Amino acid sequence: MSSGHHLAVAAVAAVLFLLSPPPPCAADPDDERCLSHLHQSLSDPSGGLRNWTKAAFSAPCDGVFSHLQGVTCNNGRVYKLALPGLSLGGTIPPELSNCTNLQSLDLSANALSGAIPPELSALLNLAVLNLSSNALSGAIPRELAGCAYLNVIDLHANQLSGPIPDELGLLVRLSTLDVSDNRLSGPIPVLLANRTGGGTAAVGTARFNASSFAGNKGLYGYPLPPLRKRDLSVLAIVGIGLGSGLLSLVLSFSAVCLWLRATDRTATTPGEEGKISQLMPDY
Questions:
Q1: Is residue 19 part of a domain?
Q2: Which pTM was predicted?
Q3: Does residue 91 register a pLDDT over 60?
Q4: Suppose 206 and one of 61, 151, 175, 225 were both cysteines; which one would form an S-S bond, judging by CB atoms 3.0 to 4.6 Å apart?
C-alpha cells in the first residue's frame, strides 16, 4: 500500500475525529451527591421533579445545559438551583453544601420545614439565597456570614426564631435582606441597622427599611421602634383592682369583728351590772 494511501486514511480519520461530538463530561461527584440527597429529602406531591432520576444525577450537566428541572449549569457544574412554587415538602439537607459551585439557591414558596443547615456556609460562591414563604424553623445560622459573596438573603414568611446574628452585618456585599414575618426576637444588629434609611450603605446601594424586619413581635431597635416595657393588660388591671377591693373588705370585716368581740367582753364583765344599778336614782 502506497504512502499516499496511508496519508489519505490518516487525513480522513483526523477529520472524523474533529467532527465527532465530544464525549460527555463525567459528573462531578459533589454535584451528584448534592442533588441525590436533596431529592431524597424532598416530597414532591405535584410531580414537579419527575425528571429527577438517579440516571440524571450521574450526569446532571452537559456544558451549560441540564435535563433536570430547575438546574442551570456552567462549565459542567451546577451553578443555579431554582425550584420555587412547586409545593415541595420535606427538609433542606446539609449535603446541599456539596454543590460547591452554586451561586443562586431559590427554594421559595414551598412547604419546607425544619432548620436552615449551617453547612450552607460551605457554598463560598453563593450570591443569592431565597428560602422565603416556607415553614422553616429554628435560628438563622450565624455561619451564613462565611458566604462572603451573598448579596441577597430572603427568609421572610417562615417560623424562624431567636436573634438575628450579628455576623450577618459583616456581609459587605449584602444589598437585599428580608426577614419579615417570622418569630425573631432581640435587637436588630447595629451593622445592619446602619444600612437603613438615608445613610450611606457599605456598598453604596444596600437599603434595608422597617419592612425588612416587620412582623416579628420580639424584634426592636432602629429602624423598628425601641424596646418598650410591657404595659399591663386590661385583665391584669381589673384583677389588681378586684384583689385590692377584696383585701380591703376582708380587713374591714376583721376590724368590725374584733371591735364587736371587745365590746361584748366589756359588757359581760362580772360585777359591772351591779355597779351600774347602784348609780341609777330611785323613783
A1: no
A2: 0.72
A3: yes
A4: 175
